[in-house]
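OP here, attaching both records as promised.
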Amino acid sequence: DGIRDRDVTGVQTCALPISEYQADWAESSQFLTKRSTANLKLRRNYGYLLLSYLSNVQNTNVNYSLRFDCYDKNGTLLSSDTGETIVAKDLIVLNLSRQNINVYIGTPIITDSVDYFIVYLLVDDSDVAMATVTLLCENKYTPIAVHFLNSLGGYETMYFDLVNRQSRTLEKKSYEQYEWNYNSSTNTMDRVTNNVMNGGSKIFWNQQTITYHLISDYVSLNDYNALRDLVMSPEVYVEYTGILVPAALTNIPKRSQVKTQ
């Protein structure tokens, strides 16, 4: 259901019961995020950007489609394209990336000339929600995208673009077999070597834990609202080579610096 599908392309959907709080939010026809959708960021060639939308009509099929208006750095409209209609219920999760958008539209509209785009979510060909997404050039470090369930019940994305350090720990369990076994057929003790002299312990279980120390650049107040939700999120995924891997947040230091005028 939704984000749990590993093949997250285009638009994913899942039907689920909604709370009164979520219903109130759905009535406002906004994406399920506390961030302003007028200034979202997406890596140009790497990673996904998740946005969620909750229908104000529960357990009812709705005709959705997406329109993308693409602009260059001077604000000139380069193209405007609408994809095919998708029928979905309740919660939908938009998986915005350059590759997925081009596949959904059926032609490469997110080209190197595009500086930003505005995505419109349409219900029965009428606009109900919109978001402006700026495409960022790749920096010298490999960014890590973290996708998470926010406090509104939607999925969204946070990028960590600075030096993200990785560490690995490996845990093993082993056993030792008795060197001699009783042979009931011959009433003798036979030596067990498995063709190895003094074989010793044998490993039967391995577990590897990969830990990332994530570091972001200075965050705006807009992104700070999402960062607070990430810290408290019960469901977190790290994007690894296009695959969403379940993760857990640990050892979260709270250090912030506020600049006042």
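Record two, same layout:
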Amino acid sequence: LNVDPAVLVRKVRLINQDYGFLEKVGNRWTVTESGRRLAHWTEETLAGQAALLLETPRIRISAFSWLVEEVLIPNSKSLEKNLRPHFDLTFRMAGTNLEQELLSNRSDFVIHGMAPTDPSIAHKKIAALPWVVIVPKAWHSDLARLSTADVLAYLHKKPFCRHADLPPTRALGFQPRTMSNLHTDSVLGLRSAVINEIGWSAVPAMAIQSALTSKKIYKLDLKLEFKDDFSIWWMRSRKDSTSLVKQLTPWLASIKIV
């Protein structure tokens, strides 16, 4: 150890007196049970730190279930391919309080259709994405040959399925004359209602990509003023997030909506 024997003995005695990790048995110093536990804990800690250094860093992104399902996961390969350095991706399908995902450090980023309200959360708007009118596939043949005025007259006779938190006049710009008995607080619920021919509805265009591709529903060419401000959120205190936002922004902007 390149230490004077007398100095070493004094250090050993101090460890024994101050911490109890060593004890003298006969003419020899041995490690006590608490000393063995400390050595075991130290070895485990060092092994854990070594494993962390070898582990690929991870980005945790939260969004509503329909946005994760319809947009983020289907386009995740292009993001993973171009991220520098390489990151593993975790997508969290969160509930209504997406700000809490960031404030509680459960996620690194949130993708949302509005700006956050908490001042500690920064955000950047990517694009204004429209809401659209969708109807059951079975109505397509009737509606395809109608004028815009006749389409509206047709819809007024059919039940409108509304979002519980969004007045129809705000989503559509007018009040449907026939309302469905079904209300839901979920965009996925509205999509399901239309697929199952319960009625028609208005939903974010991003929420119906797979249903349009598989021709389970039909999108009408009715222009709605209501839009989502497609945005990315992150904690202002996370300085490491800034460079990642610069990579995430063009990826989000490149996503194509049918």
